[in-house]
Amino acid sequence: MNPDRTRILVVDDEEIVRESLGGWLEKDGYTLGTAPDGPSALKAMREEKWSILLVDLKMPGMDGLQVLEEARRLSPDTEVVIMTAYATVDTAVQAMKNGAWDYLVKPFDPEELSLLIQKIVARQALVRENTMLRRALRREYGFKELTSRNPAMQGVLDLAKTAARSHSTILILGESGTGKEVLARAVHSESPRAQGPFVAVSCAALAETLLESELFGHEKGSFTGATARRRGKFEAADKGTLFLDEVGDIGPKLQLDLLRALEDRRFFRVGGSEPVTVDARIVAATNRDLKKAVENGDFREDLYYRLNVIPVRLAPLRERREDIPTLVDRFLEQLSLEMEKRLEGLTDEAMEVLKAHDWPGNVRELRNVLERGAVVCTGALIQASDLGLISDTGTPTAAAAVPNGAPASLEHVEREHISSVLAFANGNVSQAARILGIDRATLYAKIRRYGLRRGGEGEEPAA
Known about the structure:
CATH superfamily of the largest domain: P-loop containing nucleotide triphosphate hydrolases
Oligomer: single chain
Shape: elongated
Largest sheet: 5 strands, parallel
CATH architecture of the largest domain: 3-Layer(aba) Sandwich
């Protein structure tokens, strides 16, 4: 039960009742609003989401039963408690038939009110948790949520769905934030191994020595701090799927160890002498150009071909802008549920701003921008100014400048944008990563790759 997330609207034509009830409930930690009559209450419901309505039965113009009826239509999840000084069996039964949670007879004890609200809040929390779990399961597993209006992207998803039914290794290519792990989970859920575990490991988040132990496990005493035998991710993924995220960032030694594990389906724990055999399907992902990395000598050619059995490329969001409205609807549905806030959509201007943005952080960045808009907006519609993508001149912000009038390369655009975000965040990598819609490990890797200072300017000094 979390009072901070519970918003209660008190509807009564008597000011002293509104003030006294508001005072009691605010002391319990709830967020309060008041309305002097039925029309005002319904207006408040159209503008914001309320968890509970306390409604007086007898009010001039529109009585409590009418407010109840309209409230149930506007927001079925909002619970309504009827307050009356004229309690009769008939009115109480009618209110309950119309969908009221309960009724209170005036004057009532504040303790009675508090207990009733606590019961409602506890039930709403349980319903919310169950709903979020069901939606999370629908969202994370299967291809139902992975739809696109872009013909090329539709072909990619069809290929991934077909490949999922095999045991072959899949390599997912795409920029940060395009949804590579979401696709990997969908592949697992459609595969013959769906009943097995799905194990994900970020190859960019750990130093090579730590990543070796993370992948293959270690024996007791194999290094300082190894106080017990530990199973690695490969073992944990036995009979299931191992997702190797940002596989292009692993070092030369680990590339060789990984190649052997993929070829032989067995490996040695760190410090171990007995081989460990596993049966795990490999799905790898990277935002790097592995073919170019092979040509430069940064990535083993034999490992590249071992991983690149079925390559699947996820297009960046700027190449499939027609998907933005669909993604917006999906994310706003999630955010409305998570924040318990009525979100009916975006204004036309706000949608145009989203379509004009270049989205260097892709789908993850879009979700973060919408979350910001959902927090900042004061009504049910998110305005363009709520998104944080409008410059001082009122025009959409550009991802990066175009040098000498010529189109900039993608690397130049990304470097300049990351540099500007780091400067905006005053070198705070966590804040910059949230703005960009990527994780901290990925941002650190890009800072090293482009030689950026954490302040966003110049070259990183040599170590």
